[in-house]
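Fold these two proteins, one after the other.
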Amino acid sequence: MSRKSGKRSLFTDRFGAFAECLLTGVWIALAALPLVTLPAAFAAGSRHLNRHLAHEASGRREFTADLRAAARRGWLVGLAGWAALALLLADIAFVRAGLPGGTFVGVVGVVAFFVLVVGGLRAAANWSPGASWRALLTAAVRRTLRDPAGSLVIVCGFAVVAASAWFALPLAAPALGMVAASALAVERRGTAL
């Protein structure tokens, strides 16, 4: 494909998608600063990447509009996520205290927490204005349990964020875009199967 024909090269498309993922990660990090807006930020980021891949208008204005729409009910999902984290920390305290059955409770708590986090990201990847977060989350948790390979891909996206943060903390923000992209890719793959 030549430049003269007006078509973009494969390299340009792929590098553009990568760059858009990094930019989206920064936008997600900024939008998630209030902490309870994290699910809404991922939903807006996923919609942004979806529009970019479809070669539709996908800029800051569209991201901001999606963020506002997703945050109307998405802040409740964010609050529930922090409650789940508090329960996980309580489970870990049981394990450390050496209470009978603490190890089992700790393992169940960690697995449940990962299922909820991955399910939340899958729900955010499918969010659209007017969609019910409850319905999205219910369906996403089912898909998380039925598709362990896809769920592992999303967990690996978190590993990229952790490795980036370990290497240099400011790199964690753009890496959040990779988590949104991995959730979007897993959900697209699920609809193609």
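Now the second one:
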Amino acid sequence: MATKKQDTSSRIADNKKAAYNYFFEERFEAGIVLEGWEVKSLREGKVQLTDGYVVIRDGELFVVGLQINPLKSASTHVNPDSIRTKKLLLHKEEIRRLVGKVEQKGYTLVPLNLHWKAGKVKCEIALAKGKAEHDKRDTIKDREGKREVERAMKSRSR
């Protein structure tokens, strides 16, 4: 179940580092199990996704390293843990397929972004393969080339 491009207004957080470090094979949209204080913090944008990764334990997916910082006004009877491991929700058949792919050499699961969909928080994950150092250099070279072209077009239109 590959996903479509998300609306930028519904985005909560992006993992920009992932596109630099990995080639994406397939993308999946998963639900995420959160506590009430975490949802409130997400609404305020108190989240960091760049160090996150997905692990498979007992046939279930968990995102590790997703940091949701508690609000200052958090309730006193709740003990917020900002780096708690959060469970991802996917159909059993999708999980089985992902387990088979991840067991192949070089594949991993990476969280790409968090976004709102119908009032619920969703996590877009990707089946990814790590880039070699020369691939990363090519990515930088392409990005610099695009910037130069945009600068030239901008100065020419003035």
